[in-house]
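Field notebook, page 493. I keep forgetting to write these up properly, so this time I am using the form the group agreed on. The chain and the ligand, adenosine-5'-triphosphate, are recorded exactly as supplied. Prediction of the bound pose follows.
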Amino acid sequence: HLPVTLTHRVATWATKLASYLNPYLEITVSEYGGERFRRSELFLAAEAYLSDACGRRARRLRADLVKDSKNLQVSVDDNDEVTDVFDGVTVWWYAVKRVARSNVISLYPGEDERRFYRLVFHARHRDLVVGSYLPHVLEEGRAVTVRNRQRRLFTNNPSTSWNSYRGGKSVWSHVHLEHPATFDTLAMDPADKEDIVDDLEAFRDAKDYYAKVGKAWKRGYLLFGPPGTGKSTMIAAMANFLDYDVYDLELTAVKNNTELRKLFIETTGKSIIVIEDIDCSVDLTGKRKDKAEKKKKSNDDDDSPSESSKDESTKVTLSGLLNFIDGLWSACGGERIIVFTTNHKDKLDPALIRRGRMDKHIEMSYCRFEAFKVLASNYLGVSDHELFGDIRRLLDEVDMSPADVAENLMPMSKKKKKRDTHACLAALVEALKKAKQDATAAKALADAKAKEEAAEAREKEANKGQAQDQGKEDKTSSSSTEEKMTATKGGDK
Ligand SMILES: Nc1ncnc2c1ncn2[C@@H]1O[C@H](COP(=O)(O)OP(=O)(O)OP(=O)(O)O)[C@@H](O)[C@H]1O
């Protein structure tokens, strides 16, 4: 029966009086803060921090599976309270859940049930809590999240029906990355491998260095080599080593440069952005040439300029890709590695792979003995064998990819029912011998063809020479006949 204005006034006075008497302050950390679709980073960090630092003090806990679905993360359950001590100051965290009334239809995540943490502390510690404690919670919470998180493999390919992020709003979709490759299992020259690992480590720890020299914190790797030499395996090993997510960018599914930029902006830090087979993805190599040709053509054919600009806006161009790698946008976020793979390095535009864009060029080559030893150890668990001598000699002479070598070492193939090391290695020796024979035969064939072509060319050249000589002769003889005739005519006169 009270007027509304009076009710409000009474409520305000009551709060004021309570705050005057109650020396404790409260900070609320909501699950969905400013953004409707994204859970607040501070909330996630607080959740992780509380599970790690104060979980033991809570009485009601909630357990979730994280990382490979093997580890358990135990966090404070809704409506429970935990105490934390920071710099001698005690603070209290309350995990609160509010469920919306049943007649409210929720449109957004977090609308039907609101979860938040309430942090309570004495007013005299306000500066300490806001200035030091909350940043500490954020930092520690982030570290726990990184430790616990499951690596993800993202794709921009719209044909997949993978986990689309919150109602298809994101341009990326993802699955958990569970590739077992590591640098220990990667077959390549040990010195090269060590060099790459050192480089990755230096990159990961170089945040301050990049800031000091004024460069965006990112690094480009170009992996090139024949098929089956381990380029994709290397990317998985990198991701496992650095604990980064992988964004596998399917360039053919990107409509234009604007979409490419959008994709880039939506990638997060601590990630590897991969464009596989860059030479096949989009015709970037001849772009400049194309442009020059187009220009020439448009001059010749009087082509309208609007048509060519329309063409540019519906395609990913070389300049769009260069911008993607080192334009202004590429600096957002930091801690990103960009990897291009190709089977034909020579087909790529030099601008795309110059140092600074692709900082490190790594050649993945055919399997030599050192790489083979890694495969033998991985697949058969042996580091030495009587057939190693033969294999070393053959691998020096024959180009076989690690994928083919590995295939011969698979002990569980149909032919070799049981794990017989000798039989596997003998099969590899046979395969190498056959590959050598094939290569010799192919070389002989190519030589014979080249010889044949050379002979044909010589013959053509000779025929041409003969024809020219004949022509000259004919000319000389006809001119001398003409001369004779003129002379006769003169005589007659
Ligand atoms: N260097 C390597 N070390 C260990 N395993 C390898 C290596 N190279 C190839 N393999 C094996 O061969 C398979 C194919 O290799 P991968 O896909 O990495 O080659 P790639 O160079 O990316 O080939 P492509 O150019 O055709 O994409 C892998 O599953 C892996 O088991």
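OBSERVATIONS:
- The mean pLDDT is 79.
- Residues 186-188, 227-233, 343, 364, 402-403, 406 surround adenosine-5'-triphosphate (CB under 6 Å).
FOLLOW-UP: compare against the apo run.
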